[in-house]
Design a protein that fits this description.
Layout: E1 2-9, H1 13-24, E2 27-33, E3 37-44, E4 47-54, H2 60-67, E5 71-78, H3 82-91, E6 96-105, E7 108-116, E8 122-130, E9 132-133, E10 145-146, H4 154-161, E11 171-178, H5 184-195, E12 198-206, E13 211-218, E14 225-231, H6 237-245, E15 249-256, H7 260-270, H8 279-287, H9 295-304, E16 307-311, E17 314-323, E18 334-340, E19 342-344, E20 353-355, H10 364-378
Parallel strand pairs: 1-4, 5-8, 11-14, 15-18
Antiparallel strand pairs: 1-5, 2-3, 3-4, 6-7, 7-8, 9-10, 11-15, 12-13, 13-14, 16-17, 17-18, 19-20
Helix pairs in contact: 8-9
Length: 383
């Protein structure tokens, strides 16, 4: 299972597309139209975001925006066998929204079905054979074609079909879902039972002002990572999201890059608004046991406001991360920008390496305190 695409329900698809191009360096790769909605599609690396805007009040987009501010409304998964995946989900109690359909195209075939996810989030299963359009042509006419996934030559096919456009980001590292207080274990159980995710680790984070609980899920096939958060205090940043989003939803998506320092330096010049990190964080970082970064690199991280973390048994495999400010009018959805550095395994006789693991656990307190400062500016958190 891989993330196929993410659909955002928005008020203006063209304006949203332009924001992603200007601020994150995505490229526009297509557009489409149906009776009730218009779409714009942007791409970076293997990432495809679909921006959907309503053309009339009967649109599913209009219904979503009546209940929530703009944000992620659909998370689609590409699967090797849709019948197996769909039958399992339905046997486990999933609610079918759109039945299994097949579309034969010029260079392949596309099969899809849509389920209700947690809250108002939907999940579409997609099976691709040959070269197929990103979305079914019968649903939305557009010209974005993808190579067959799960094939041995997928990487070369992507290389062959790519143009000269440089992408800052290569893939989606993880997607984070926020749920109401008391719903964490039920949500974890649902994704484990219905979609086959496996629980990995759990966190409880508390600052002087708020607290939250988090569980990380990972799919054994394809490595999709889905952390799920719930608030553990009434003034938690997670509770603020739930209040403003008017229910559960996707809080942020982590975009992976191979050069976070260079990417952030460039995107700052383009005007991307990022979360502020205080100087005290870098003073503590310089004193942290196991630091393998040079003083010059730490200075660059401080200049670009980037956080660093590592696991005790692999100090040289450093995780770098930073966070955008919320991208829509309501302070709900934002992006994490991440780099997982790799080290060659010492006992390896080949070129096997180990990537930085985790989600920046060593940065959690600094991150949440930074978000709390933004809450205080908005007046949603009192000292």
């Amino acid at each position: 299972m891989k993330i196929d695409y993410v659909c955002f329900s928005v008020k203006n698809a063209i304006a949203t597309r332009d924001w992603f191009i200007q601020n994150l360096g995505f490229r526009s790769v297509g557009s489409g139209m149906s009776d009730d909605q218009a779409i714009e599609i942007v791409n970076a690396g293997s990432i495809y975001f679909v921006f959907c805007a309503a053309r009339n009040e009967a649109s599913a987009v209009a219904t979503f925006l009546q209940h929530h501010p703009p944000g992620v409304s659909e998370l689609a998964f590409c699967v090797p066998s849709i019948e197996t995946t769909l039958n399992h989900a339905l046997q486990q109690g999933a609610r079918l929204l759109k039945p299994l359909q097949t579309e034969v195209q010029t260079h392949g075939s596309l099969r899809w079905a849509t389920l209700a996810g947690w809250g108002d989030l939907t999940h579409t299963f997609v099976e691709r054979v040959g070269r197929t359009s990103l979305l079914p042509q019968a649903v939305m006419r557009h010209d974005v074609l993808l190579p067959q996934p799960f094939a041995r030559d997928e990487a070369s096919a992507l290389t062959e079909t790519a143009d000269a456009h440089y992408s800052f980001f290569s893939s989606m590292d993880h997607v984070v879902l926020n749920v109401a207080r008391g719903d964490l274990e039920r949500a974890v159980a649902w994704y484990e039972r219905v979609l086959g995710f496996q629980p990995q680790q759990g966190f409880e984070i508390q600052t002087a002002y708020s607290a939250l609980c988090s569980r990380v899920l990972r799919h054994p096939s394809g490595g999709v990572q889905l952390p799920i958060n719930e608030p553990a205090s009434s003034n938690s940043q997670i509770q603020e999201f739930l209040d403003l989003n008017r229910g559960s939803g996707v809080q942020h998506i982590a975009l992976e890059t191979t050069d976070l320092l260079g990417t952030i330096a460039h995107l700052r010049q383009k005007g991307l608004p990022l979360l502020h990190v205080p100087a005290a964080y870098y003073a503590q970082l310089r004193q942290r046991p196991g630091l393998t970064l040079t003083p010059a690199i730490v200075h660059q991280l401080e200049e670009q406001q980037i956080l660093a973390d590592w696991q005790d048994k692999a100090e040289s495999a450093v995780l770098l991360q930073t966070f955008t400010q919320p991208i829509f009018d309501e302070p709900t959805f934002f992006f994490e920008l991440i780099q997982r550095q790799a080290i060659r395994l010492a006992d390896s006789t080949d070129d096997r390496s180990q990537r930085a693991q985790g989600f920046g656990e060593g940065n959690f307190r600094a991150l949440f305190e930074a978000i709390e400062r933004e809450q205080m500016k908005r007046g949603s958190l009192k000292r």
